[in-house]
Design a protein that fits this description.
78 residues, mainly alpha, 2 helices, 54% helix, 0% strand
């Protein structure tokens, strides 16, 4: 299990994950320990996009639950 018991915990985890990833960059001297199917920069970009979408969706759900109008907008996937 991922340890999420309540919506609030899931919301916090999603926000923390996105905040922790949004400014991460690949070190130019990084040498991958194995050959990935895509360049590390592409994988990081996709991970950032996914974490942003999850955080935005959780914000949307929280806004909807709180009755906020309009609720947060969930961006389209890149």
């Amino acid at each position: 299990m991922n340890g999420v018991v309540t919506f609030e915990q899931g919301y916090r985890q999603a926000m923390q994950a996105y905040e922790g990833l949004k400014s991460v960059e690949i070190d130019k001297d990084y040498i991958a320990p194995i050959g990935f199917h895509r360049p590390p920069e592409v994988l990081l970009s996709e991970l950032k996009a996914h974490s942003q979408a999850i955080a935005a969706y959780m914000q949307f759900l929280q806004d909807k639950q709180a009755g906020k109008t309009p609720p947060a907008e969930v961006p389209a996937a890149a």
